[in-house]
Amino acid sequence: MELGESTEETGRREVWEETGLRIGKLTLLGVVSGLDQFVKLPNNDEFYAVTIAYSTNEIVGGTLQADGIEAVELRYFDLKRLPDGLNPRIKAMIGQAFGNGGRGDAD
């Protein structure tokens, strides 16, 4: 997050920088934070991550070939087949937001 940015502005900017996608209206899904979000990097930097998750249906662009795009691959996942390794709290948040009671995997 840059100084003075809202979390929505940060999300839009990061999505653009990572993927080349422009996104519109965002709906807050939730926030993941706490003691279990502790991260220690290989260089010994330590921090507690805070993840703010949004959803949107307003998506434009995404070539991954524009200058400055950081992602190597861009994929969408069916809610019933979210990728392995996804933070369980974020997976549950997605499940709860989209109607499966927070189990993290759709019915």
Short structural summary:
This protein is α+β, with helices and mostly antiparallel strands.
Walk me through what this model shows.
The chain has about 110 residues and is an alpha+beta fold. The chain has two domains: about 70 residues, Nucleoside Triphosphate Pyrophosphohydrolase (Alpha-Beta Complex), CATH 3.90.79.10; about 30 residues, no CATH class. It contains two helices and six strands, in the order H-E-E-E-E-E-E-H. A two-stranded antiparallel ribbon has the order 1-6. A two-stranded antiparallel sheet has the order 2-5. It has a two-stranded antiparallel sheet with strand order 3-4. The radius of gyration is 15 Å and the shape is globular. The chain starts with 6 loop residues before the first helix and ends in a 10-residue tail after the last helix.
As a percent range, the share of helical residues equals: 10-25%
Number of helices: 2
Return the structural class. alpha+beta
| Low-pLDDT windows of residues | 101-107
Q: Major sheet, described briefly?
A: 2 strands, antiparallel
| Name of the CATH class of the largest domain | Alpha Beta
What is the typical, i.e. mean, pLDDT?
Answer: 83
Estimate the global geometry from the Cα principal axes. Answer: globular
> What is the strand arrangement across the widest sheet?
1-6
Element-level helix/strand string: HEEEEEEH
Distance between the termini: 35 Å
Please name the CATH architecture of the largest domain.
Answer: Alpha-Beta Complex
The Cα radius of gyration reads 15 Å
Task: State the CATH superfamily name of the largest domain.
Answer: Nucleoside Triphosphate Pyrophosphohydrolase
Count of β-strands: 6
